[in-house]
Design brief:
Length: 387
């Protein structure tokens, strides 16, 4: 072989006996075939085979298998973000004339997707009260193909009664999708409560280090895999093995991170509930929370993300006061090592269940710092708002 060819054709080395605990990053567009017949037959390799990088590598398949096991599903698909997981969970199952019912407390970009894209293709988009199944019952009909849930809801954190909702949806022939980003499959398993599809923003807790965007959708029934796989392939959606590898690494510490964050959240909540400028802390693990009994029944734990509502008239002071924070960073997303705060407006994103409190919820995501530094920061914030 001549030098230029040596540069291109890489020798294979022995891999037998090399058993690392980390997962290899397999980068590939082309997958080579032994024979022309193998190449011609590549379409018959099935969902677990390899034919082209777009359809998966051992790295992405490993992360998918881990999620499938934790969600107790049949198969998982990775997509470039949590938002992509939500849109791809709906698209394969909708056509013009169909109807989707979406929880009023849904992640706002899902609302935008439904109102701006689904409507454009002749799909009827209707919102339902996340905590009143009779509202869903009244709005569902034979044209309804998807009932979309998110529990707890974004920012206002309503807990949904998933077994009751899936029962209503299935009686009318609709599929149920549920965004599980807040709880992660460690704390909530929607597929075991009747949901057909569960989505995760892996960007948040599961990757856990604020440095990668990725999402997943897992189906309960193998029958749903073909439509999703076809849409992903036709739309050319795939994820990088480097990103999947970052998520696989973060995943290993998910349990200890969630534990530290949820403990820290409870300490901060205690301090905030005692402050007379705080109207209410929103967190389903509090016995005073309206969602507590359903949360207790269906969830295995809580995460470290919660909301704070201030007394009427104080919310104008909240955003400027955030500048006193030393340990918390100000920013969107959550579930990373660094604690975050973000002032979230609510009213513009509610059309069914009105939000009557002040139109600002301070979302707090507890990270992995020492809890005392976070308490000190929150003390300083409360003092600045009260000043
Ligand atoms: C952040 C978030 C997403 C989206 O995740 P990205 O990876 O940032 O697109 C989806 N659902 C919920 C509930 C979220 O909080």
């Amino acid at each position: 072989m001549k030098d230029l060819t040596h540069c291109v054709v890489t020798p294979s080395v022995k891999t037998e006996g090399f058993v690392p605990l980390g997962i290899g990053v397999h980068r590939a567009s082309t997958i080579a075939f032994q024979t022309a017949e193998d190449y011609a037959d590549r379409g018959k390799r099935g969902p677990d085979g390899y034919s082209y990088g777009l359809y998966g590598t051992p790295t992405t398949r490993t992360l998918e298998a881990k999620l499938t096991a934790l969600e107790k599903g049949a198969r998982t698909f990775l997509v470039p973000s949590g938002q992509a997981a939500n849109t791809i969970a709906m698209l394969p199952f909708l056509k013009a004339g169909d109807k989707v019912l979406i929880a009023d407390s849904v992640y706002p970009p899902v609302r935008d997707f439904a109102n701006m894209e689904l409507v454009r293709f002749g799909i009827e988009v209707v919102y339902y009260d996340p905590v009143d199944p009779s509202d869903l019952e009244a709005k569902i009909n034979a044209r309804t193909k998807i009932v979309w849930c998110e529990s707890p809801g974004s920012t206002t954190m309503e807990i949904q009664d998933l077994p009751t909702i899936t029962d209503i949806a299935h009686r009318h022939g609709a599929l149920v999708g549920c965004d599980n980003t807040w709880a992660t499959p460690l704390n909530y398993k929607p597929l075991t409560l009747g949901a057909d599809i569960v989505t995760e923003g892996l960007t948040k807790y599961i990757s856990g280090h604020s440095d990668v965007l990725l999402g997943s959708l897992t189906v309960r029934d193998e029958k749903l895999t073909a439509p999703i796989r076809s849409v992903l392939g036709r739309m050319g959606i795939s994820v990088s093995p480097d990103d999947a590898s970052l998520v696989l690494r973060g995943f290993e510490t998910l349990g200890v991170r969630m534990n530290h964050a949820s403990q820290g959240a409870l300490q901060l909540i205690e301090r905030m509930q005692a402050a007379d400028i705080v109207e209410r802390v929103i967190h389903p693990a509090l016995p005073t929370d309206p969602g507590y009994s359903v949360w207790k029944r269906d969830f295995h734990g809580a995460s470290g993300v919660f909301g704070v509502v201030f007394k009427q008239g104080l919310s104008d002071r909240v955003s400027p006061a955030l500048n006193v924070l030393k340990t918390f960073a100000i920013g969107a997303s959550w579930g990373g090592t660094r604690s975050l705060v973000a002032p979230m407006p609510v009213k513009a994103y509610r059309t069914v269940r009105r939000w009557d409190a002040d139109d600002l919820v301070l979302r707090i995501s507890v990270g992995l710092e020492d809890h005392q530094d976070l308490v000190d920061d929150i003390e300083a914030l409360l003092a600045e708002i009260s000043r």
